[in-house]
Design goal:
By secondary structure, the protein is of the alpha+beta class. The longest helix has 14 residues. The chain is globular. It folds into two domains: 115 residues, Rossmann fold (3-Layer(aba) Sandwich); 173 residues, Tumour Suppressor Smad4 (Sandwich), CATH 2.60.200.40.
Length: 305
């Protein structure tokens, strides 16, 4: 690739297969742009491979055409090269949730989103690095969701008959009814230790996740902070009561919901902690993850705005 080129990485499987149709319509309606390549992913992890090659080749911008999972894969490819060599990230939000685009104010019709992704102005965007007790590591850009959050994603992965944000809503209700497992957590935030019994724990770079849940209302993806959100041990009925509050971002008025900001987090648990990163399952219960370290990487990326 030439140094002034752009790569659009498309995920045909995103949004339960709808992304491929959107990309085809977009490309047929708009003539090819010089020095812009389009490549469709063929398997899990392929977007990371493509983004890595693009970054190493001096590509100017890499556009994620898909959902938040596609963005996460591309981010992990971009982060393999030094910051000075890292291409800018463009967003063409065609997934079911598109939470990062929402959090960055970049939701738009596909044609407008593509023009901005290719020709906008790059601005700093924070990222985060997570490492578990087995030494596995991965970057994320929006949300690391643990406990209830990840259990809800596992429920959503089983739902085949719905589309869009309704998937996550049904999954959350199922999780409240079936996965009510309080966990003892020791939390170290920027050197300060505390202990909790929690149902939910999220370390967020952006406010919204799950296609509509305002989990961390104060979180901004470029403010140099990560926002910790937790729900302490409460009944299933109380969890159901909190559901509409999380949809509005008003859950902070309940004493069972706690917020905290920080830049480094160490999390130790008395039982296996499931984890999702940007809506993609990273660790299920069988992985038996009990210790995590999360580190903010301020301004690690440049986002086309």
């Amino acid at each position: 690739m030439e140094s002034d080129s752009a790569l659009v990485i498309t995920n045909p499987a995103a949004n339960r297969g709808r992304c491929g149709a959107h990309v085809a319509a977009l490309r047929s309606a708009h003539p090819a742009t010089p020095n812009v390549r389009w490549i469709a992913t063929e398997r899990a992890g392929h977007a990371t491979e493509l983004a890595t090659i693009a970054a190493q080749s001096g590509c100017r911008v890499v556009v994620a055409a898909g959902g938040d999972g596609t963005v996460n894969e591309i981010v992990n490819g971009l982060m393999t090269v030094p910051a000075a060599q890292r291409p800018a990230l463009g967003l063409l939000p065609l997934g079911s949730g598109n939470d990062l685009a929402f959090n960055c104010g970049l939701l738009a019709a596909p044609a407008s989103a593509l023009q901005r992704a290719l020709h906008g102005t790059p601005a700093a965007l924070d990222a985060a690095l997570i490492v578990d007790d087995a030494g596995r590591s991965r970057h994320y850009i929006n949300v690391a969701g643990m406990l209830f959050d990840a259990a809800a994603l596992m429920q959503a992965m089983r739902i085949q008959y719905l589309r869009g944000p309704l998937i996550y809503l049904v999954a959350v209700v199922r999780t409240i009814l079936q996965n009510h497992f309080p966990t003892r957590i020791t939390l170290l935030v920027d050197g300060e230790t505390s202990q909790h019994t929690l149902l939910m724990l999220t370390v967020a770079n952006g406010a919204r996740e799950g296609g509509g849940f305002i989990c961390a209302p104060q979180a901004l993806p470029d403010d140099g902070w990560l926002d910790y959100v937790s729900v302490t041990e409460i009944s299933r009925l109380q969890m159901l009561r909190l559901l509409p509050e999380f949809l509005r971002g008003t859950q902070g008025r309940f004493g069972s919901v706690q917020f905290k900001r920080g830049r480094t987090f160490e999390i130790s648990a008395d039982r296996a902690v499931p984890v999702h990163l940007d809506g993609e399952l990273w660790a299920d219960y069988a992985a038996n993850v009990r210790h995590l370290r999360i580190t903010l990487l301020p301004g690690a990326l440049r986002l086309m705005r």
